[in-house]
Amino acid sequence: MAKKLKIAIYSGNIPSTTFIEQLISSVSQHHQVLLFGRKTKKYQVPKNKLQKTNSKSVFSKGKHSGEVNETLEKERESVIREYAYGTSTFQNILLTSIRTLLLAIRFPKRLKTLFTQIRKQGSIYKKRQAWFKITPILLYLPDIFHIQWAKETEQWLFLQALGVKVVVSLRGAHINYSPIANKTLANSYERIFPKVDAFHAVSEAIAKEVQKYVIGQEKIHVIHSLLPENTFDLFTLPKEKDSKHINILSVGRHHWKKGFTTALDACKLLKDEGVSFTYTIIAGGIVLEELLVQRHELGLLKEVQFKISLPQQEVFQSMKNSDVLLLPSYEEGIANVVLEAMAMGLPVISTDCGGMEEVVISLETGWIVPTLDSEEIAKSLRSYLNVSDKIKRVMISNARKLVLEKFDAVKNGALFLEMYHHIMQSRK
């Protein structure tokens, strides 16, 4: 039987996004998963029934000491082991002091690495944060450190000197447009990416982007996102509608790359043609002032509404209440919300940015339009209104079949395991 590995899936926050959490769940069925980073809210770590401990509490009294003890107990008991630091500075100092002491006792040579990395930081605050972040990683050193956001790669390459394999996921913005907007970042990628042991790309389009910085394709593994099985359980075929009113939905975050300005221009074209519609944008963060001004100037106050970030179940409910999902983005990897819509039976109109053409095939699984083209978006929305219910059902069925085949959690989870085993074999 293959040796169980210790794999750190690192996003910096615990818990992470839905798709990263799905990766954690999948990998933990075969290997031990280590979670490092800042704990932002309550996180239920699955219990490992095969691992039990009779270890007694480190502390017996005190509010903060009790919280620290609970954290240490979770570290021992779970198949998914959580080595977090929280929002309380006092608790973090106490917990990290214990971890530093344990590090000095068990692995004294790694203390030098810890102090070296802390000294690289500028302010006292940054040094303290580095202490919180790095200490547990050096104490519970993984076999593989899988970084989920490419911009953070450089700060973790020092782990390779300790025998840790470093994997980097490439999902969209960090490789698509950030290096174009930030020349310093691009130069950093040119310098450090050749040192990375393996890359995970969410699409073929993303894989092409990383080839600009990496010589040889053997390091690049294209693995589509793991779509949670319960998403497919939400599938429903749309009901026949007598009304010609269309409910349009976009889900994302308030950022220029999401293309909401182009979408509003398309809405103006629809209104001028007398099309009845409602356009809802569910997005995290403060609504951009330019969008509010644009909505006012285009006379779309009644038709366009903005909603702040909602819990996942409420987003799914909004998707169920909508007629079509619009992705007007300028850059994406493969947008998770589009995959969710296709799994649920919600028709999709998407721009051809990033890897979107790999899933949205025009008039087969949805409508694909050029980026920055409001007229084509409006045209596709009119096409949605005019196409027969029979054709819509065929497109919805095709879309669901595609995501079932390409984004199956079990199949794609196995591909991650193959990647991990491949890079561990390269060590030999």
From TrEMBL:
It is an enzyme of class 2 (transferase). GO terms for molecular function: glycosyltransferase activity. Keywords: Glycosyltransferase, Transferase. Transmembrane segments: none annotated. Residues 140-224 form the Glycosyltransferase subfamily 4-like N-terminal domain. InterPro entries: Glyco_trans_1 (IPR001296), Glyco_trans_4-like_N (IPR028098). Its EC number is 2.4.-.-. Gene3D superfamilies: Glycogen Phosphorylase B. Residues 240-401 form the Glycosyl transferase family domain. PANTHER family: GLYCOSYLTRANSFERASE, GLYCOSYLTRANSFERASE EPSF-RELATED. This is Glycosyltransferase. The lineage of its organism: Bacteria, Pseudomonadati, Bacteroidota, Flavobacteriia, Flavobacteriales.
